[in-house]
Amino acid sequence: MRMYDIIEKKRDGFELSQEEINFFISEYCNNKIPDYQAAAFLMAIFLKGMNERETAQLTDAMAHSGDMIDLSEIPGIKVDKHSTGGVGDKTTLILGPIVAACGIPVAKMSGRGLGHTGGTIDKLEAIPGFNTSISRETFIQNVKDIGIAIAGQTGNLAPADKKIYALRDVTATVNNISLIASSIMSKKLASGADRIVLDVKTGSGAFMKTLEDSVKLAQAMVKIGENTGRHTVAVVTEMDIPLGKAVGNSLEIIEAVETLKNRGPQDLAEVSFELAARMLELSGKGSFEHCRELVREAVESGKAINKFEELIARQGGRKEVIDDYSLFPQVKHVFEYKADTAGYISTMKTDTVGVASLELGAGRETKESTIDYAAGIYFNKKTGDRVEKGEVIATLYTNREEKIPQACSLLKQAIGLSDAQPEKKPLILAYIDSTGVEYNTF
C-alpha cells in the first residue's frame, strides 16, 4: 500500500477503505509518512470531504493511536461531557458535582486552555493545593469512593490527533467538519466513557460562528459516537457573549461555587443544569423533565456543593475556599472599565473579550506560558443591560498594570452600545441525537 495512491484516490473524490485510513494513521504516527504527503492528504479531505463511515473510522483509528482508558472497574454507566470551547465556560465545574451527587459516576479527563478559551484544569489549579496530575489508580479509586474525579489528560491520549492537528493548523485545513469532528471525538473515545454529551458552542466566542455550522458539527459528532458504539447526544448553546459574568481562573471557580449554592448567574445556571440533566437522562435516570428535577434538588439541598467540596479535599485542595474566597490568589491591581456614553449593550465580541482576559494574565499564548490564576474580568453588565455614562461595565483584575490600557482597548472593540435594547436570544439553541435535530423555537 502506498500513500501516493491513497492521496490520489481521495483527491479524485473516491471513498477510502478502513485499511487505507488505518494505514495513514499508523504510518504517519510512526514517522513513515512525511509531512508533505500528510498535508496533501489532509487538503484532499478538506476539498473532497469524507462520508459518515470514513469519518467514524478515521476517528476510531486516531483514538486507538495511543492509550485507551479503561473505566470498566467503575460500576455503573459512565457519561462524559465535552464542550467545543468558549469564554467563561466553567460548566464542568458545576455539572460534575451535580451529576455525581445524583449517583452517576463522573470520571472526567479535561484539558488546559490555549489562546482566548480557558481550560478546566487551569481553573481547578487556581484552588490552592488542588492536584490534577493524579495517577490512573488514584483517579479510578476516587470515582469509586466519592463518585467523581477530574484530572488532566494523559500525555499519550490520541497522539495521532495531536500530530495531525499541528499540521492542519499550518496548512489551512482546520475548518472541515470531518476533521474537526474526528479530532474532538477521538479524544472522547479514548477517554473511556460509555456515553457522551456534547456542548457545541456557536457565535463570536466559538469555533463555529453560525448555528447552521454548529448543528452540522454536532450531527457529525453524534454520528461518530453512534457508529463507534457510544450513545451520544449534543446540545448547541449560545457563545455570542461570555457564559456567566466571570472570565479568569479563580474568578470562574468562585462563580461556579456560587452557582452550586444556587445563587449564580442565570445564564450559567441554565446551561449547566441543562447539560447535567442530559447526562442524567443518558445514564438512565429517567425522562429529561425528571432529570431536571433531580438537578434542581441536588443544588437546592446542598448535595451538589458538598460534592464539590469533597472533590477538592480528595485531590489535595483547600476545601475552605468554598466559604472563604480570600484564600484564592489575589491581584495587586483592580481597574473599573466604564461606559463613555449611555445606551444598551448590544454586542459583545466574545473572542475579543477572551483576548483581553489573556492580556491581563488569565490565559496562555503558548503551551509554555505561565497563567496568573487571580487575573481576569468580571462583567458588571452584559448584552441587553442598560448602562449610563460613567457606569462600570467590567472590573479588571491583574498583576500586570502595564496591560490594563491594552485590555481596555480590546473591551472597547468588543462591546457595542445602541439606543435600542437588543432582542434577547435563547441560550439553548438546538438538541441533536441519533433521530435528528430539535430546534429551540422560544
From TrEMBL:
The keyword Glycosyltransferase applies. GO terms for biological process: pyrimidine nucleobase metabolic process; pyrimidine nucleoside metabolic process. It comes from the Bacteria. PROSITE patterns: THYMID_PHOSPHORYLASE. It catalyses: thymidine + phosphate = 2-deoxy-alpha-D-ribose 1-phosphate + thymine; uridine + phosphate = alpha-D-ribose 1-phosphate + uracil; 2'-deoxyuridine + phosphate = 2-deoxy-alpha-D-ribose 1-phosphate + uracil. Homodimer. Catalyzes phosphorolysis of the pyrimidine nucleosides uridine, thymidine and 2'-deoxyuridine with the formation of the corresponding pyrimidine base and ribose-1-phosphate. This is Pyrimidine-nucleoside phosphorylase. It comes from Ruminiclostridium cellobioparum subsp. termitidis CT1112.
